[in-house]
Amino acid sequence: MMRSVERILAVFESFSTERSSLSLQQISDRIELPKSTTFRIVQSLEQAGYLVRLEDQQYCLSFRFTRLAGLVKSTLGIREIARPFMTDLAEKTKETVSLHTVSGRNRICIESISTVMAPLRAVVQAGEQIPLQAGSGSKVLMAYMPKAELTPLLASVGKASKQTKAELLAELERVREAGFAVSHGERLMGISAISAPITDVNEEVHYCLSVGAPTVRMQMHEKEFVKLVVDAAASISRQFGGQAELSVPIDEP
């Protein structure tokens, strides 16, 4: 049953604003299933009214999605969506998990969760504002900024981080390619953080998810924590309307 649901969701997520209609072969390629299996799934969705077959034999999503979209609570915001995933991440890492966005030349923490009171831990309070100069959260938010918003920040951020404009842009490009950022003692000595972007329905990044911990503990679990943070951010992104990939592989029986 779960595999069937995953396949259906994979078909829906094959469509994008750039490719609003797809051929059967294109859908098959995107969900990585044989054409015969894809045809059975697509045919069932067409009969159920969720896909429309066009005159050129391509498929597109039907207006049933417009009706369903209208049922989504207008008050459902990023905090409500992110909090369950943040709580789960805090329980898995035993560290402080926070949610950040940009406010002018600062990043602001809009939610923070810590499940345990360790003797030594990173403390981030909701409402705390931090200059967009250092730290993994700042890097992620700047890495996905539109050029018009990023350009005015480059001089001050470069000066604070002792980087040239070219070096700073190259670092932000590496963050985009990796899909996350890691920092050790950049903002506070002895404190490390891992951050990943949260994408919205327009494939834009206005928020990032972070885990902060004393460097001595973070370095022991860095690879594990990177995966946990990236997966949690991807889960939040999917519920926030972003096109994050399903983490569970869809295999042919």
Automatic annotation (TrEMBL):
Name of this chain's protein: IclR family transcriptional regulator
Q: Which SUPFAM superfamilies match?
A: GAF domain-like, Winged helix' DNA-binding domain
- UniProt cross-references to SMART domains, sorted A to Z: HTH_ICLR
Q: Does the keyword DNA-binding apply?
A: yes
Keyword Transferase assigned to the entry: answer is no
Pfam families in the cross-refs: HTH_IclR (PF09339), IclR_C (PF01614)
Q: What GO MF annotations does this protein's record show? A: DNA binding; DNA-binding transcription factor activity
Q: Name one GO biological process term.
A: negative regulation of DNA-templated transcription
